[in-house]
Amino acid sequence: MEACADSKRLTGVLDVWETLVAQVLPMPPWHVGGGYQQNLPSPADRAYGDEVATIDLRTEVKEFLSSRRARISPQRAGLPAYGGNRRVKGLRREEVALLAGVSVDYYVRMERGSLAGASDGVLDALASALQLDEAERDHLFHLARQSRVPSGSRRRRPAGTVRPALQQVLDAITDAPAWICNGRYDVLAMNQLARALYSPLLADTRRPANTARFVYLDPEAARTFYVDYERIACDVAAKLRMEAGRNPHDDELIALVGELSTRSELFRQRWASQDVRLHRSGRKRVHHPVVGRLDLDVESMEMPAEPGLLLNVYTAPAGTATVDGLALLASWAAGQERPATEIRALH
């Protein structure tokens, strides 16, 4: 009985302590112009506004770390759970500090958005304490790196075009869809087979075509095209979040996130999850309006000579129905009087 009472008293003390810390340390300000919850750009920040604000790094750090902390129970972290009425979802801040080997005050400052002074060793320890996967760890380091960049310093603008030689490389790939995009999901270059494959996406005349807009702003067509639409939607938002950590000052990315958040409730939900993903290999299943179901193996490769660009190539194992479907798709594309990018509808 005494042990139970002591446990409850300890739980109450820890909960009160955490509440007091949260009140003493100020919350980071929202970025210029206000903003939605989950650090979304406000409507005034969109591309068609007069001004475009930056993504607020302190808020990004706070929401990312607090969301990762909330998903880990003491049992999962290997810690004793004192009492049965914890008011904090997941780990307490002092528990994360204990696991990371830093003081509680230091961790609280980090979770409030102050990562500029954190060493790589501290970030590694924090990643381990929060059990971050590879993408989440990279995202944490991106946020820390951007936090160290002096205000007003020169910012790298993500590529919006490709060199002619890269288009030649794509055109040399004749038996597999291949295309190049940037971290915003802008489609910058495609070979003939990729144009045929993504003809539903390219039916929109807006250029550059953007797969994130297709997924979230034309959901009926996207659900018809992508067999695994829900997974694709999650991955798109998570990869955009990853890009926001790399390039928080990219005006076009901020405008894209603002547009999607304004027009898509599903995107707002996915963005709020704080999930991140890396562009890697995987499987993509689509239903093409001309050739039907295609189960494609995807390889996404970063291009060292063109920072920020990704080469995506879709293939299928020999002897499968998808190989036959790609051959049929190539034949259909070759017989079109107009490029696939100009097709408005397929029957």
Give an overview in words:
- With 347 residues, this protein is an alpha+beta fold.
- The chain has 2 domains: 2-131, no CATH class; 164-342, 2-Layer Sandwich (Beta-Lactamase), CATH 3.30.450.
- It has helices spanning 2-24, 57-70, 74-77, 93-100, 104-111, 120-129, 134-147, 164-172, 192-197, 199-202, 211-217, 219-225, 229-246, 251-263, 265-272, 321-334; strands at residues 178-182, 187-190, 282-288, 292-302, 309-315.
- A hairpin with a 3-residue loop joins strand 3 and strand 4.
- Helix 4 crosses helix 6 (120-129).
- The model is unreliable at 1-53 and 338-347 (pLDDT under 50).
Write down the Rg: 23 Å
The tally of helices reads 16
Q: Hey, roughly how much beta strand do the residues contain?
A: 5-15%
The CATH architecture category of the largest domain equals 2-Layer Sandwich
